[in-house]
Amino acid sequence: MDFKSRSYHFADFVVHELEGYIENLHLIEYEQGMLLVDSGCINDIKRIEEYCENVIKRPVTDIKLIIVTHLHP
After folding, report:
1. Residues 60-65, mean pLDDT to the nearest whole number
2. Do 27 and 35 contact (CB within 8 A), yes or no?
3. Is 10 a residue whose pLDDT tops 90?
4. What would you measure as the largest C-alpha separation in the chain, in angstroms?
5. In whole angstroms, what is the distance from residue 70 CA to residue 73 CA?
6. From CA 68, how far away is CA 11, in angstroms rounded?
C-alpha cells in the first residue's frame, strides 16, 4: 500500500499525519503506546493497520486511545 504521510518529531513523541479516505488521520507515537486522533472511516482500518505494522514497526494494538473530534456522515 502506498502511504501519503508526514512525521513530525518532538522530544517525547512523534506525530504521524496519514492521508485517509476522506480526512487526515493522526497517530501520536509515545514510547508507552499510541494515540489515534480522528480515526477516519471503515475504509481506513486496513490503512491504519498496515501503516502501524509496516512503516512505524509497531502493532496496531499499541493504540491505547482514540479521540474523535468530529464525524463525517
Report:
1. 98
2. yes
3. yes
4. 36
5. 10
6. 25
